[in-house]
Design goal:
5-stranded antiparallel beta sheet; alpha+beta; globular; two-stranded antiparallel ribbon; 7 strands
Length: 187
Amino acid sequence: MLHSMTSEPEQQIGVGTQDAFQRLWTPHRMAYIQGENKPTGPGAGDGCPFCSIPEKSDEDGLIIARGRWVYAVLNLYPYNGGHLMVVPFRHVADFTDLDEAETAELALLTKRAMTALRTASGAHGFNIGMNQGGAAGAGIAAHLHQHVVPRWGGDTNFMPVVGHTRVLPQLLADTRAMLADAWPEKP
């Protein structure tokens, strides 16, 4: 897994002009931009990452906790450090497709995610929600997933607004271990 790194101001090397800007390289984002690992269709067998993640070990799949009906997993392309998703094991696209047990456990694991994020990272608040359908912004519309994004006072600085870049201070494997350790009650 690659991580972001900064470099010293670039020196003039053959082409271009030296400037005072530092560069923040995030090459792992190119996979997201190019749609790598996106499903090829709406079915569970069409390459859905949310269907294949539970087949991996918790560490390899970045799974924080598993319930009977849903699981909590780190987002590979997080908006903030600790950004995770609560995902049903069953391949369904719409919130109304969940049965009562799945709905209840999705809510329970969302609450536990909030508790773990407060314990592990002192989150001040949260953005919680799901985008239903491609028109609503769902990156993987065929498999329902609820985002839990921790927030801190002042965490939106110039980087995402001006630089269209997010700075994450920790590797995903380290974040997964920290949250798994802080996860309250196992389902």
